[in-house]
Amino acid sequence: MAELTTQGKPGNILLWANEKGEFVRKNSQFRNFISAADGALYPPEANRYHLYISLACPWAHRTLIVRNLKGLDKIIGLSIVHYHMKELGWEFRGDEEGCIPDPINNHKYLRDLYFITEPNYNGRYTVPVLFDKKSNKIVNNESSEIIRMFNSEFNEFSSNPELNLYPSHLQSEIDEINEVIYNGINNGVYKAGFATSQEAYEENAQLVYKTLLAVEKILKDNEYVCGNVLTEADIRLFTSIIRFDPVYYGHFKCNLISVRELPGLSSWLKRIYSIPGIKDTVNMEHIKKHYYMSHLQINPTGIVPLYNGEFVG
Prior knowledge:
The chain is built from 9 helices and 6 strands. It has 313 residues and is an alpha+beta fold. The protein folds into 2 domains: 5-152, Glutaredoxin, CATH 3.40.30.10; 168-275, Glutathione S-transferase Yfyf (Class Pi), Chain A, domain 2. It has a 4-stranded mixed β-sheet with strand order 4-3-5-6, with helices on both faces. The two termini are 24 Å apart.
């Protein structure tokens, strides 16, 4: 996530708390939609759009997974920022394994994409970014919308068009569970980790714990979150759960229970990880180094703890 930096200045994410001491996430600002509908401003085209991500960021990670699962890697380009976020935000570097520089404008920082889109931009420089090479502007920087576009709007170019992660008969159920998972896990871990008061921390750490138990109950009897079919709800949950024991458990103090202690969730995590196209999107080195080296308000020494690598169950 890129909330550490705004307006090109060093940002203290702990200052984003409300009076209660609770972290408040800002809304994404670029919300255009790629659509096959007649007259759409951004129609689906091969090799027109480019995806900018961080392998460390769970929100960006979900877009990479759907790009892979739908077989869009040949028609939607990819750039990957460096894991260590410093004063100017996400940086493009080619000297680290897993990083892919910006081939469109050869920018040094992700924030440059925001300024060429909106010269007076005054907000966060976040990943993911879905960029239009034709207009040289950001189309969208909201991960939940980008995965919907990848799922449905590029099927004529997809090598796996039959995969539908948001089937019509499950949409209400998916939307409902997405909301629970977002509040209690996806965003809940950040609200616990970035809390600036004991009350806010305890409230949100408890919410994370209760939500994990609720998901565990679902997955003890089901192969996937919404029954026996893979949906976007699984993808949205996976990118948080894969980070939970190595990062959120300790770094964000969400330590009331670990994924390892939840057999249903652990088995589900291994199941999702083993799906072709997903394992290759997980880079635990980028994940660990980003959180522990970039969040100096939480981890002032920047020391990255050792981990045995058994992060799937």
